[in-house]
Amino acid sequence: MSLDLNLDKILIIDFGSQFTQLIARRVRELGVFSELISHKKVKSFQIKPNIKGIILSGGPLNVYQLNNDLFDKKILKLGIPILGICFGHQILSKFNGGKVKQSKHREFGLANIHKKDNSQLIKNFFNKKIKKVWMSHSDQVTKLPKTFRAIASSENSKFAIVESKTSKFFGVQFHPEVTHTENGKKIISNFIFLICKMRPNWSSKDQKIKLIKEIKNLVGNNKVICALSGGVDSSVVAQLLNKAIGKKLFCIFVNTGLLRKNEETQVVKTFRKKLKINLIYVNAEKEFLKKLKDISDPEKKRKIIGNLFIKIFERYSKKIKNVKFLAQGTLYPDLIESKSVTGSQTSKIKSHHNVGGLPKKMKLKLVEPLKFLFKDEVRKLGLELNLSKEIISRHPFPGPGLAIRMPGIITFEKIKILKEADYYFIQALKDHGLYHKIWQAYAALLPVKTVGVMGDNRTYEYLCLLRAITSEDGMTADFFEFKKSFSQMISNKIVNNIRGINRVVYDITSKPPSTIELE
Ligand code: XMP
User: Fold this and answer.
1) Are 256 and 311 contacting, i.e. CB atoms less than 8 angstroms apart?
2) What is the pLDDT of residue 82?
3) Residues in contact with 53: Cβ distance below 8 Å, sequence separation at least 6, in sequence order
4) Nearest C-alpha to atom 11 of ligand 1 is from which residue?
5) Helices (H), 274-411
6) Do 205 and 199 touch, CB atoms closer than 8 A?
7) What is the distance in A from the centroid of ligand 1 to the CA of 266?
8) Distance 517 CA to ligand 1 centre (A)
9) Would the CB of 516 count as within 6 Å of ligand 1?
10) 396 C-beta closer than 6 A to ligand 1
11) What is the pLDDT of residue 108?
12) Ligand 1 pocket, 298 CB below 6 A?
């Protein structure tokens, strides 16, 4: 038994386009639940009555490669409205008797399309006769099925928008889901509301009500434990469960000693005092420091911290008797099978540690209430659950904490210095209205000492590195450009106020080739 929202939805069949997640998000932004499934996994018999419309995504395949293992064509015979985007548009045409060929002119980037006919799909889309759209294809439909008609064309694509005269099938050669397509969301909205006749069912409020109900059904009278890190995901999970099952929830918060300044006090204050959640606070600073003594290899550090975290979590969870469930903050992108559609396997760069990877051997059933949500939806849900903006819009913080912002060996003295430097930096970002313009920022302490002069005295102290990046999802990143006045102010503040640092440098590398964290 697992959480099942059982909502009316738009099913997006993913053929491996880089934009598929965007389609799912656009549908949800319009207030309708959507789910993604790989083209290889979906079979016609799995299509349930709550699927009110299907979107076929773009992708790198060729329609002539599509055999029954790659796509169950019976899906096209179920009488459900279908919108094909790019490759999906070619599928619709091909399997309804049209022709698709490699075109002489590949179309990448912006193109103008001209309206030729009316259709529900383009209601209020063309506010002028020509519209700029984003194309990305080399194959194209060269002959329309007899039962289809053209609604719009571009110079290179005669059939840029098409519609079936006999079924609710619609195809667009361009990508309405990307922002470069002017008014593209209107196409998706017309498909959902006018053609599939859906009603909005996916606001933060809907999610809250539905998820609380589902959690109650799933958990019943049993106890649930949850590892709380104070980050956005685990905080939202905890508060959601708190609303659903109250005192049957037990949160365990482990202070590794590698947290940001005052973090443990804030977490205890917010979750125990304000939100009245059962919170077990474990101060394991000494244990972590002892295990990390003399370790400088980044991977060893990560492994030690991850394993010890799990050991401590298990130790404390055993103290709560008769626990049946473990709550985790798994998000939708973690689950989307389409990640493997493109087949790319990245080599392991770092062993990630987070509270989501808790022990399988604990034999607890999982509650993963966020597994239907994208990150921005989690944030909105958190606000709906009355979590403060401060928690909801916090920069990400890695599981291994300050350990990976301190290359070389870890000592109590270094942690203390680093906590202070990080605090000054983050506080300055907040004071100057920069915190929310930056995706993630932190201070690091490098294992080198350099010479400086303060007053008339020579100093020989650590080097502090500041990093601030902009990013969409942490996969790629660029460094943030500060004004000289800010850089000057923060470097002065850190050097003047923190004993142990006499030099500040700013990291100006992007990701790739660097990563966001130092280790
Ligand atoms: P990197 O350094 O790989 O970081 O460019 C990308 C994002 O992931 C965060 N990060 C982690 N988060 N456990 C986490 O929960 C980890 O072990 C971990 N390592 C890195 C990092 O802070 C950045 O946001």
Assistant:
1) no
2) 98
3) 10, 11, 80, 81, 82, 83, 191, 192, 195, 196, 198
4) 398
5) 285-291, 298-319, 332-335, 375-384, 389-392
6) no
7) 22
8) 7
9) yes
10) yes
11) 86
12) no
Q: What is the pTM of this model?
A: 0.89
pLDDT at res. 344: 36
Q: Which residues, in sequence order, are bridge partners of residue 457?
A: 454
- Averaged pLDDT score across all residues of the chain: 93
pLDDT confidence of residue 475: 85
How many Å lie between the centroid of ligand 1 and the Cα of residue 398? 5
* Top mutation candidate among 228, 516, 519 for ligand 1, by most atoms within 8 Å of CB: 516
Q: According to the CATH classification, is domain 204-392 in 3.40.50.20? A: no
CATH number of 411-506: 3.30.300.10
Atom of ligand 1 nearest to the CA of 395: 24
CA separation, residue 296 to residues 301, 304, 407, 515 (Å) = 7, 11, 7, 18
With a 6 A CB cut-off, is 408 part of the ligand 1 pocket? no
- Its CATH architecture, for the domain 9-195, is 3-Layer(aba) Sandwich (3.40)
Show me where the domains of the chain are located: 9-195, 204-392, 411-506
Q: Which amino acid is at 138?
A: S
Q: Residue 212: its pLDDT value, please?
A: 97
Using alpha carbons, list the distances in angstroms from residue 259 to 27, 286, 422: 38, 13, 11
Please report the pLDDT score of residue 104 as a whole number.
Answer: 76
Low-confidence ranges of the chain (pLDDT < 50): 337-346
Catalytic residues: 86, 175, 177
Residue 97 CA to residue 429 CA, distance in Å, equals: 60
Q: Do the first three CATH levels of 9-195 and 204-392 match, i.e. the same topology?
A: yes
Smallest CA-to-CA distance from 305 within 326, 288, 286 is with 288
Q: What is the per-residue pLDDT across 217-242, written as a single tens digit (0 to 9) for each?
A: 999 999 999 999 999 999 999 999 99
Using CA atoms, how far residue 442 sits from 98, 185, 351, 410, in Å, is: 56, 37, 20, 17
Longest CA pairwise span in the chain (Å): 89
